[in-house]
Amino acid sequence: MDDLALERYFDDSIANDPSYMVEEELDLQSSLKQSHESRTNSRNSSNLLGETETSGRLGNDLDLSFLPDDLGNQSSSSTVPATAATHQNAELDVLEDRGINLDNLHGMAVVKRQVTVNLGSERNASPFCPMTPMTPMTPMTPVTEKSGIIPQLQNIVSTVNLGCPLDLKFIALQARNAEYNPKRFAAVIMRIREPRTTALIFSSGKMVCTGAKSEEQSRLAARKYARVVQKLGFPARFLDFKIQNMVASCDVCFPIRLEGLVLTHQQFSSYEPELFPGLIYRMVKPRIVLLIFVSGKVVLTGAKERAEIYEAFENIYPILKGFRKQ
Amino acid sequence: MFAAGLKCPGCGSSNIVDDDLYCQAQLVCVDCGSVVSEGTLADDPVGGTDVSYSRTTAVTKKPCLNLIKGLERVKEMCRILRLNSEIEDLALTYFRQAYQQESFINVTLQRKEVLAGCCVYVSCRQRDWPITLGTISSLLDADPTLVGGVYQEMIKILNIQAPFVSITDVIEAHVQEYKISAQHVTEELAEDSKVLTKRAVALVELAGDSWIVTGRRPLPIMMAATYLAWQSLNPNKHRLKLSLDKFCHLAKVQKRKPAVMRITELKEVLCKLGRELPWVRETVTQDNVVRLVGDILEHRHTLLTRALRTHETAMQADCPQASALNSPTEEVTPSQRSESRDQTADASSALQLCPTDRTENQEGDDSHQTEDPEPNWGVRVLFAPPCVVHAKRRRVEPPPVQNVTGDEEISDSEIDSYIRTPQEARAFALMQKAVSSSGSGNS
C-alpha cells in the first residue's frame, strides 16, 4: 500500500476514531463489522485488519502526556460506547432473528438507519483510552442488561437414605400423619405441617421428600421425617441427602408469540397447541426444561442447583423480549 | 424328561416321565408304571395344529399380520385425505420403523391403529401439508388425548421433528368441510366457498394478531371464524338469527363447545376496531358489529393503528402523574435501553402490542402502591391474551418461614405430635380390623 496514504490514514484515525484501539482489544470482529457499517468507503477486511494492527503499534509510541490524570472515568465511559455498539449489534441480530413477516417493512428500514447512525455518532464521541497495562478496566456489564426478574422456587424434590429396612405397616399404625395403601402404592405417604411437605417412605429405608420451597427447608423437612421414624423405634440415620429436582416460576409481564418462537428455535422448542397450551423449551446449557406460556409466565424445571435456574432464565429472557413485538 | 408337579395316582411318586408311544403323548410313572395321563389321537385339533410345519421351520421371518394391516390402514388414510405419493411413502417408512420399537410392538390393536394415524400426521407436517391432529382423531375415531400421547411418544422414539403448522394454512382446508354452498342449502343461506375462505382467513389473521389464537386449540377458532365470516358476508336477518348450533347442523359439521367463547372474543376485538371507523355514528356493540365486519377487515391495519393511538391517549389522560413519578424512580439502567425502545416503538407503530413505556411505568407504580401482589398488566393494554385479562385469583399462601438453615434443632414436642399414643394406636388397629372384616363380610 502507498506510504503516503497509510500515513494519512493514521493521522485520520488518531484524530477522529481513537476507540479503534479499544475495539481491537475487546472484540476485533465486532469492530470490523461496525467500521464496515459506519464507514461508507469500501475497504476490504484484510486491509482494515492490517491498518488497525499497525495503528495500534504506532499508538504505543505516541506521546500520551495530553491524557487526563484521572483514568477511572475514562475506562468506564469508554466501555459505554463499546457496550452501546455491541448492544446495537445484538439489537440488529434480534431484529434479523424475527423471521416473521413484518407488515411495516418501512419501519424496519427506519430502525436500521437509525441504529447505524447511532453507531457512527457514538464512535466519534468516544474518549481516548490507552491500552497501558496499568489501567484498571472495570468489568464490563454483560452485553444484554439483566432482566431484573428473579424466578421463585415453587417445589424441591430430594431423596435421603435412612439406612435401615422399615416396617411400613407398623409406621402406618403408629404415626398420625401417615397413610399406607399397599394395593395402590408400595410406600407410606407421610406429611408434616412445618415446612409443609410430603414424604414417600419405602420399606428399603429410602425416602423422597417433596413440596419444600427452598433447599434448606427440604433438608429440614427430611430431617424431621427421619426423626419421626427414629422415634418410632427404627435405627434411622440421615445418609446421602440429595436434591433431585427444583421447580421455579416467574412472570415476564408481556405476552409472547409462541408461534414465532417455535419457528426460530425449532431445535429446542416443541409447541403443539392442540395438546398443550404452552411451549416446551429444552435448553441445552444449562440442561433445564422451560414451559413458556402466552401470558408471559415461565416455569423452569429440571435443575439440581439454584444457579442453573437463574442462568436458564437469564438465557431465555432476551429471546423472549425479542418476541415481545411481533 | 421329568414332568414337574405331577403325582402318580397309583403310588404317589412324583417320578413321572414323558413317554411318547407311537407319536401318542403319554405321562408314565417310573416307579409303578401306571399311565398318569395320555393324549388321545382324537384330541388333535381339527385341521392340524395351530402352528403349521412350514411356520416352525421357516428360515426368513415373515412380516407379522398386524404390520401388514397397519400399512394397509396408512394407505387407506392417505387415500381418504387425498395425499400425494410422497407423503404416503414417508408415512409407510415411519410406520415400519416405529412398529419395530418395543413400545409399539406389544400394544393393543387400537394403539397400533392410532400409530398409523400419527405416522400420516407427521408426514403431512413434514411435507408442508396443513392438517390438524383433530382431523386425524376423527378419522381414527379415537380419543384426541390418546392420539396426542401416541404422537408424542412416536416423535421421541423416532427422533424426528415436525415443523409447526400455522392456523392460517389449515383454515382453507377446514372451510372446505362446510357444506354451505348453493347446492346444499337455500339461496339466502348459501355462500361460495372461495369467498367464505377468503374472509375466514382474514378473520383468523386478525385473531392471531390480537392474541386469541396463541396457546389455544385451532379447531374452535376456525369454526368461530367461519361462522362469523358466513354471517357477515350477507348479514340478513336469517343468517344473524341462526345460532352456532344450527349453523353446524346446517353445514353438517360437528360443533365444538369452545367455539362459542371464541366467537365472543372475536366479536370483542371487532368491536374495538369497529369503534375507530369514522363513518359509524352509533355505538358498536356485539349485536351490530357483524354488519361492519367487511369494512373492518378491509381497513384493519389502519384501524389497529388508530385504536392503539386512542388507547394510548386514553391511558395518558388517566394517569399523567404516574408517569412523572416513575421516571426518576425507574431502576432500569442505562439510557441506551429506553433509547433503543423508543426507536423500535416509533418504527413499528402499525402493530399492536402494549405501549411499552406506559405499561412498565404503571407496573412499577402498582408494585409500590397497591396491596395487590400481582399487577395485572392485561387490563391496561388494548389487546392481551384472554388468560391474562381474566386472570384467575390465586390463593395467596402465607409467606414461608424465612432464613431456614436446614440444620436447626427439631423440638421433641413437634415430633411427638406426629406419633399416636398407645391408646390411639390400639383403637385404630381395632377399627381397621372391624372395617376389614365388615368389608369382607359384605363382599
TrEMBL record, chain B:
In terms of Gene3D superfamilies, this protein maps to: 2.20.25.10, Cyclin-like
What compartments host this protein? Nucleus
Q: One matching Pfam family, short form?
A: BRF2-like_C_cyclin_rpt
Q: What is its main location?
A: nucleus
Composition bias, Polar residues: 323-337
Residue stretches of biased makeup (Basic and acidic residues): 357-371
List GO terms (cellular component aspect).
nucleus; transcription preinitiation complex
Keywords per UniProt: Activator, Metal-binding, Nucleus, Repeat, Transcription, Transcription regulation, Zinc, Zinc-finger
Biological process per Gene Ontology, one example term: transcription preinitiation complex assembly
Family note = Belongs to the TFIIB family.
Lineage start: Eukaryota, Metazoa, Chordata, Craniata, Vertebrata
Give the function comment from the record. Answer: General activator of RNA polymerase III transcription. Factor exclusively required for RNA polymerase III transcription of genes with promoter elements upstream of the initiation sites. Contributes to the regulation of gene expression; functions as activator in the absence of oxidative stress. Down-regulates expression of target genes in response to oxidative stress. Overexpression protects cells against apoptosis in response to oxidative stress.
Name all TFIIB-type domain ranges: 4-37
Entry annotated with the keyword Transcription: yes
Name it: Transcription factor IIIB 50 kDa subunit
Q: Which InterPro entries match?
A: BRF2-like_C (IPR054078), Cyclin-like_sf (IPR036915), TFIIB (IPR000812), TFIIB_cyclin (IPR013150), Znf_TFIIB (IPR013137)
Q: Where is this region: Disordered?
A: 317-379
What GO MF terms are annotated?
A: TBP-class protein binding; zinc ion binding
